[in-house]
Write a structure and sequence with these properties.
Layout (H helix, E strand, L loop, with lengths): L1 H43 L10 E12 L8 E11 L11 E7 L8 E10 L12 H7 L4 E13 L4 H12 L6 H9 L7 H9 L10 H21 L9 H19 L4 H19 L5 H15 L7 H17 L8 H24 L6 H25 L5 H25 L11 H15 L4 H15 L12 E4 L8 E4 L4 E4 L11 H13 L6 E4 L4 H4 L2 H7 L5 E3 L14 E4 L2 E7 L14 E5 L4 E4 L5 H10 L6 E3 L11 H7 L3 E4 L12 H9 L3 E4 H4 L2 E4 L2 E7 H7 L12
Parallel strand pairs: 3-5, 8-9, 9-10, 14-15, 15-16, 16-17
Antiparallel strand pairs: 1-2, 1-4, 2-3, 4-5, 6-7, 6-18, 7-8, 11-12, 12-13, 13-14, 18-19
Helix pairs in contact: 1-9, 6-7, 6-8, 6-12, 7-8, 8-9, 9-10, 10-11, 11-12, 11-14, 12-13, 14-15, 16-18
């Protein structure tokens, strides 16, 4: 009797310790997977020395997509797996995955094998405040290097995988519909056919999560699977009568969820939702109530085991963050006024919670997201997605019904996109916030979720608002902060005084349509201070200085424009103009009003004199304009932007000696085709005692006049912090 009692008492304790051990083992497995994959990715990353020659590669094409903004498909972006490297100098690239651009390519399809003559580069991206972290994106997607294809020869094609054949069949079915790209994104998770305008609209309205495969869609598949399973169980033959109806429904639902996750490419949101849906289905079949927090923890562990570098993607944090918010706000709370009040509560929780989270992760917030999702969530959930799923389910045996479902989904999408375009007039405000501000907003949101007292809610709202205020570290009165942005082979420089902002040049706009003014300069303006410009100066009309100017003028309020570029408007840049902002003097030193020489020597030269330091921004002037400036008189400066990106046509000995700068910055892209800056010029500045920096190598650089000997390099800062994926600069 005593032994029986002891056994019965020890059984719950044994189960409890067994459960804890299993959870610990799962957590350790996820952590181990992350560490192993991190070390593998760093070891596989292509080194800088590969850029010294064109390499002969045999590779299998994983994907071949037209470059965004390329209306004539004259450039392909290929992701290839290297099967053989015929040029093994520096390192053997066999087994590595590369992302390559191919200009004016022949027809290329996924699954083909090619012999490629390619210029390969180490993973490298622009490093700017508020900018997209391309190196992080490459590592998260398993890409070890980038480059360009010079020419290639097709060797053969392997048989497409079953998933590729299914995706091809679905693409063929929806080919004739207006919203083909959106239908493919919803049905297969393939968002590659959405162009930049489509993605921009979804981001500005906060609806990206609805128009790609996400947890919402997987949850609907699970519900439809349970309904279908119940129907199958009731119609089953007699020999299945002994099987509980709930078990039959669970099996069908699990198969439906697994099939849909596989069909969608097993992305992070789909895997997370699939694991959670699977746990819910099994709990339903077993008649047990499993806490939702356990589902979420199990989903996170499963994602980390399957995709160890998933935390590098924004989708990981946004996906799990959204579920955490809903669980915190809705778990164990019965809606007081029915399901409509529950839906309204979920909506305001998502708006208040996801706004700071999206601003922290993605660098922007959508002010119209609440209104957009108020209509989009139920419309997509109860109309669009069921029609898409019905189209998938009937595509094999009931083709006419499938076409009807696809047509209905296309019409429903047209209605939704029309509504989003109508809302888009409100625009988007870039809202960069730091970890401290995010913590303040989420703490205030937690208080809001934990109380129903309206007085407590009103008390929490100011703290929430404080978290969304951009905290600006402005220079002291009489001092200046200069931020030279990393725009590759180009120029874009932000100058801040206590209450004013000036932008000198705006980067390039490429023939493909990629605009650095929109992609890099605007986010940097938002991330470093107030989203406005008191003045913008475009030094001259070269595309690497003026190409992004139109995007900046359209994207941020600009009080005045100075540019010798007729297409931009504004007033001309003329020597002698002078103004003072917050105790800092700005003077235009060149060109004079009578100057008629076109080209680089016509660049607008700006001098800035603060209380503790002087700056000179000479644009692309060459030796002739340098002689003019020296004839008019030049004073030594603390910070000099080397003329013409450090070209040997500028920075003469007399010019460098006249200015004797403490710091010389060359705004040149890494491994650019002009070979800027010229080694002779770099050596000349160093011999004059200047500390030399290159934006393409060191990232965005920040200099403050009250600390004239210090330059802050964004790439070095990120390398020294927790951004372990940021690549090291090559030795120069």
């Amino acid at each position: 009797m005593l032994q029986s009692r002891l056994r019965s008492a020890s059984t719950p304790k044994l189960k409890r310790w067994t459960g804890r051990a299993l959870w610990l083992a799962a957590v350790l497995a996820a952590a181990g997977s992350f560490l192993v994959e991190k070390n593998r990715a760093l070891a596989q990353r292509v080194p800088h020395c590969v850029s010294e020659e064109t390499r002969d590669l045999v590779a299998r094409v994983r994907s071949a997509d037209p470059a965004a903004n390329d209306p004539f498909a004259q450039r392909l972006r290929l992701v290839v797996d290297v099967l053989e490297d015929g040029s093994r100098q520096c390192i053997d690239l066999t087994g590595r995955r590369l992302r390559l651009n191919w200009h004016s390519p022949p027809p290329v399809r996924a699954g083909e094998s090619w012999r490629l003559a390619a210029e390969v580069r180490a993973p490298w991206g622009y490093q700017n405040p508020g900018g997209f972290d391309y190196e992080r994106w490459l590592m998260a997607n398993g890409v070890d290097g980038t480059g360009y294809v010079r020419h290639g020869e097709r060797l053969g094609r392997s048989a497409p995988s079953p998933l590729e054949r299914i995706h091809g069949a679905i693409a063929e079915q929806v080919r004739g519909f207006r919203n083909r790209a959106h239908l493919l994104a919803l049905a297969t998770g393939d968002g590659r056919h959405l162009d930049d305008d489509d993605w921009s609209l979804l981001r500005r309205t906060g609806t990206v999560h609805l128009l790609v495969v996400s947890g919402l869609h997987v949850g609907l598949v699970a519900v439809f699977g349970l309904i279908a399973g119940h129907g199958i169980g009731r119609l089953a033959p007699r020999w299945l009568a002994r099987v509980p109806l709930g078990h039959v429904a669970a099996v069908v639902a699990l198969c439906a969820v697994a099939g849909f996750v596989w069909l969608s490419g097993a992305g992070i949101p789909a895997v997370r939702a699939g694991v959670m849906a699977g746990c819910g289905i099994l709990a339903f079949a077993a008649g047990r109530a499993v806490p939702p927090g356990r589902w979420l923890a199990l989903a996170a562990i499963a994602v980390l085991i399957v995709q160890p570098l998933a935390p590098l993607s924004a989708g990981f944090w946004l996906s799990f963050g959204a579920v955490c918010l809903l669980l915190a706000g809705l778990a164990n709370r019965a809606p007081p006024y029915g399901w409509l009040s529950g839906l309204a509560r979920a909506q305001w929780i998502m708006v208040l919670g996801m706004t700071p989270l999206v601003a922290f992760v993605a660098g922007e917030a959508a002010p119209v997201a609440g209104l957009a999702n108020l209509y989009a969530v139920p419309w997509v959930s109860f109309v669009v997605v069921p029609l898409v799923l019905s189209g998938l389910a009937t595509s094999v045996l009931l083709t006419p019904l499938s076409e009807l479902c696809w047509a209905g989904a296309d019409a429903a999408l047209s209605s939704l996109l029309g509504y989003l375009h109508w809302l888009d007039g409100a625009g988007v405000r870039k809202l960069p916030i730091g970890p401290g501000q995010l913590a303040a907003s989420l703490f205030a949101l937690g208080c809001l979720l934990c109380t129903c007292n309206w007085r407590a809610v009103l008390a929490c709202l100011p703290l929430y608002a404080v978290g969304l205020v951009v905290l600006e570290g402005r220079p002291p009165f009489g001092e200046v902060r200069v931020t030279s942005l990393d725009v590759g082979q180009g120029s874009a420089i932000l100058i801040d005084t206590r209450r004013h902002r000036l932008l000198y040049d705006a980067g390039a706009r490429f023939a493909s349509g990629f605009d650095l003014g929109e992609a890099l300069v605007l986010p940097a303006i938002a991330a470093t201070g107030p989203f406005r410009l008191d003045r913008m100066i475009v030094s001259h009309g070269d595309i690497d200085h003026a190409g992004g100017a139109r995007a900046v003028l359209d994207g941020v309020p600009v009080e005045s424009l100075v540019a010798n570029v007729p297409s931009l408007g504004g007033r001309p840049c003329i020597r002698g103009e002078r103004w003072i902002w917050d105790g800092v003097e700005f003077t235009i030193l060149h060109p004079p009003e009578s100057f008629t020489t076109p080209g680089n020597d016509a660049s607008c030269v700006l001098g800035v004199t603060a209380r503790s330091g002087r700056v000179l921004l000479p644009g692309d002037i060459e030796k002739g304009a340098e002689r003019l400036l020296m004839a008019w008189g030049l004073k030594p400066v603390d910070l000099l932007f080397a003329p013409h990106h450090g070209s040997n046509t500028s920075s003469t000995n007399r010019f460098v000696e006249s200015l004797s700068p403490r710091i010389a910055v060359m705004m040149a892209g890494l491994d650019n085709r002009y070979r800027h800056p010229h080694p002779t010029v770099v050596r000349r500045y160093r011999q004059a005692g200047a500390e030399t920096w290159i934006t393409g190598r060191d990232g965005a650089l920040t200099w403050r006049s009250n600390r004239p000997d210090l330059v802050e390099s964004l790439r070095q800062e990120r390398r020294s912090s927790w951004n372990w994926w940021t690549n090291e600069a090559p030795n120069q």
